[in-house]
Amino acid sequence: MAVSQDLADRVRAVLAPRAPFEERTMFGGLAFLVDGRMAVAISGDALMVRVGTGGRTAALERGARPMTMGTRTMAGWVVVDGPRLADTRELDAWVETGLQSARTARPRPPR
């Protein structure tokens, strides 16, 4: 599935004044990393948002859906579908959620 370039541009605009970030192609989408940790990613016109282990319930109540890969539900991640992101304030809030979750995530052990 192609990445929505419009959504990618909007995410860049939200992240740019807040934190240095890196973009990587991952999982057939475009991931945005802060401090080496993925904060949000785009797949098609949907935004995958890191919410951490304690943020999933609140995110689902805000209108996100669980993130799944195959048959596995990904803990600490949700998906926000494109129509919910039309409002800039809504996109801003979701990107901020991902950014804060990435900043507070435990570092991965070295490989």
TrEMBL record:
InterPro entries assigned: TfoX_N (IPR007076)
SUPFAM superfamilies attached to this UniProt entry: YgaC/TfoX-N like
Name recorded for this polypeptide: TfoX family protein
Domain TfoX N-terminal residues, every copy: 15-101
